[in-house]
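Cast an eye over this sequence plus tokens and walk me through the fold:

***
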Amino acid sequence: PIFTPPIILPPAAIGEGCQVSDAIISPGARLGRATISNAVLGVRAIVSDDCLIQDAMIMGADYFESEEQLLEGMIKNEIPIGIGAGTVIENAIIDKNARIGKNCQIINVHGVDSASYDDKGIYIRDGIVIVQPSASVPDGTII
């Protein structure tokens, strides 16, 4: 037998105006006014307002950031864990604890089969964009 500890989390919080179709949303996820289709959102995944998530796997996070951590991050100009407002993610895998800024486009805009953006922790393999665990993608990034 395989033994695992239970994950005790609140149910997913789906914001008013959020549109979800053909998606699996795990416990602890927080969704703003976003459009999500054909996607899997893992434990503690955070998706802000005006995002489009399509054909993607968002692995979520190992922990929630406390209000103190969020405030400290704002002072240091750091991106919080999760997907920032206005971001578009298509045909991608976003690994755990990734920090995606506001108004990013993670869509393989050039349609390449393979590429590496080591400085950002982003790779493209077989046309699928992969964001490494704990990577930080600045606001306005287009991949």
